[in-house]
Amino acid sequence: MLERIVGTRRGVEGNGHLAEDANLIFDSTQLRARPSAWEAVQAARNIKRPHTLDVITRVFDRFQEVHGDRGFRDDPAIVGGIAELAGRPLVIVGEQKGASTEENIQRNFGMPHPEGYRKAIRLYRLAEKFHLPLVTFVDTPGAYPGPEGEERGQAEAIARAIFTMTRLQTPIVVVILGEGGSGGALALAIGDVVLALENAIYSVISPEGSAAILWRSPAEAERAAKAMRLAGPDLLDLGVVDALIPEPAGGAHTDHEETAKAIKTALVAQLAKLERAATSDLLSARYERFRGFGTLTEPGAAPPLPAPVPWWRRLPLVRRRP
Amino acid sequence: MPFGRKPKEFPDHLWTKCPTCGEMLFNKQLVRNLNVCSKCEHHFRMGARPRIDLLVDKGSFVEQDASLVSGDPLGFVDQKPYPERIAAAQVKSGEKDAAIAGSATIGGNPVELVVMDFEFMGGSMGSVVGEKITRAAERALAERRALVIVSASGGARMQEGTIALMQMGKIVSALARLDGGGIPYVSVITDPTTGGVLASYASLGDLILAEPGALIRFSGERVTSGTVGEKLPTGFGRSEFLLEKGFLDQIVPRAQLKERVAFFLGAFRAAWQDVRWGL
User: Fold this and answer.
1) ipTM of the predicted structure?
2) Which of A164, B36, B68, B268 is 20 to 30 A off residue B7, Cα-Cα?
């Protein structure tokens, strides 16, 4: 639906849209190589992989971080602020992992607490209020599952974040950088366009968790990862992400600059595209995007109505001579 | 064997032991008492069909979307293929999936009702549950009826992977539209409600009611205690705890549930039905 509003993604007829999406991968057959699910999991978790702040400092200009949820504390696992992209101000929110053990302890391994999601909601509202586009970066093993999170309403905070994003009156572009861990990721991942780095993963539960429950052994994580179809190309096939951002040959961890450049190109193009659409159209398209998920059969239901016949086909036929 | 004494026997199909007070309860009486222990008020779990009978006005329930069946988006196989798991659960429960949706009235208020059943694959939320709730919310908005969802679920259905996760986005999108339309949505949380269900629609009611002693938690017991490496205090993540922390409006005993839902919906009806209070 979004494509109908803002033009086709493969605008090869020379209407100028071709350049916008040139560097993105829309079809998994375009990929050079399809990594195995487990390789993708390893790559997505690589501690040297560019994390949210690495990307922000390289992609945006004049980034100013803002802090706090105004209720409890500032959660270091979610960062956010105002920055400029190609001279245009916007709001950024992202989940932040550490690049070392010490930093990871400080960042809680990228697992946000409820106050982190409430900070995110505050920034979403800010973007809406001042008509700034919103860009979010997803990189978390999941929301923090400890007792403090439960006490402060982890589930409510995530639900409210999703709720806020579904009808936020401003364009939203989501980029999945590394791990997209379940509800903790979804709280930042409702968007008009959802992109993912080539080796990013996105899943409903960690492969280890799934293995422990369904195979009764965490050692089966590798098999679980395969069955869950959580790697980039699978997500593209399922329609969960709209396009993949190509990574440098050895993976994103080998070259932060190159990765950031690819992300920047993608963001500039997608935001330019989204800003051509009216907000109400964006919201309809966003609704339809998520409304469509699900694999169902409905025996006995009325068949879908036939496509309406255009008026010129309804005109009486003029018989031609044979 | 001592003279004149017989060991007491409680065959399982006739008696149930209350896990809270240890009282032996006669099954027929337990069902008559709405699956609540007559001695200590322990609320046993309740299936979706009896729950619907409990909530709606007699004879008003019309089931909707009853024929929806789940596909297999991932071709998922763990120890068994996913379609086999669904088939087994369907045979066991006699239902098509983990939620039953329909239109009804509650105390005279027109509602769209969705009730989840924990017996069907742990009440897990996949495409069918997502679709039934979304359609219920869309019907509620189109026909200006209230929405009531009774949750009982372990969370998103792992066998549907990210498609199950996307159901959260889909349902919440519909709820956001419902909210914009000024239609009331009452979320009733029952034992147990965890994971993705709690982190989406169960937590978004205009009012959130829960049954006494229900387990209501974002993450499972093992995950939480595994993270902190210690045992959690008893009652952690139960209804009473959540009420104290401010995440529930009320804890409502099962016998009063219908009356309470009806009261709230009636009180809100100026906004969503054409009613003017003559004050």
Assistant:
1) 0.92
2) B36
